[in-house]
Amino acid sequence: MKKTKIDWCDSTINCVYGCPNGCKYCYGNVMNKRFHFCKNWNIPEWKPEHLKEFYSKKPKSIFIDSMSDIGTWKEEWFNAVAKAISDNPQHRYIALTKRFDRLMDMFLRFPPPIEIFIGISVTTQANANAATLVHRFHNTMPDFYSIEPILQSITIPDDAIPKTLIIGAETGNRKGKVVPQKEWIDRLVRQADEHNSIVFMKESLRSLMGNDFRQDELLWRV
Ligand code: SF4
Which residue in 67, 141, 198, 221 has its CB near the most CB atoms, within 10 A? Predict the structure, then answer.
């Protein structure tokens, strides 16, 4: 288990490294070039030696796919991690995906342990629209949206606003890096407030938001 700089959880455990989703701004890919966790970032690798990290006593909020996307995992990987989670209900678990459709299919076959908070990674209006269609189809809502990095103005359909919105700006020095406008964030906050949703802004938004910077208490804090 690793302590993390991610401010919305306590720790990370990664049993899978790599992700085929191909996001240009991928932080995991940048880290992999430096530390060589897996041979090719686009081909996820299973690292079962990390399963033992789940077996710790002190309760924590743990992000389980900070170096992959759970929605792209093989079924056997998902099952092994689900077993470790079931064995360790003292923790709260968080997973993030861009493949909510595939994750929902997997959940139908392998119901997840209830301790997992599932988030969808949304960076564009197209992501938000696609996510909405999937959870209308499955008649289920994710626990949160991670709108990070926000790449454009986004309006979430009213019937699709989750309980929690995490919002952040792109960091790093990528050529073509997107610097958000305050109005994009204000619009999401207005939508969240209309639905009594939690808003958690990443530190990357602190200077842009000034007095409107906000970090509500998260549901998975232990
Ligand atoms: S979904 Fe996440 S881990 Fe996968 S490529 Fe995109 S940013 Fe990287």
Answer: 67
- Does 103 share its domain with 171? no
Residue 154 Cα, ligand 1 centroid: separation in angstroms?
19
Between 2 and 161, the more confident residue is 161
Instruction: Give the per-residue pLDDT at 8.
Output: 92
Instruction: List pLDDT tens digits, range 134-145.
Output: 777 766 778 899
98 lines ligand 1 (CB under 6 A): yes
Residue whose CA is at the smallest distance from ligand 1 atom 8 = 26
> Does the beta carbon of 44 sit less than 6 angstroms from any atom of ligand 1?
no
CA gyration radius, the chain:
17
20 and 112 co-located in one domain: yes
Pick the last residue of a domain from 62, 90, 121: 121
pLDDT, mean of residues 157-178: 90
Q: Tell whether ligand 1 has an atom less than 6 A from the beta carbon of residue 69.
A: yes
Domains held by the chain: number: 2
DSSP labels, 40-79: -TTS-EE-GGGGGGG--SS--EEES-TTS-GGGS-HHHHH
Q: 105: Cβ–Cβ under 8 A, 6 or more apart, which residues?
A: none
Q: Is the CB of 21 under 6 A from ligand 1?
A: yes
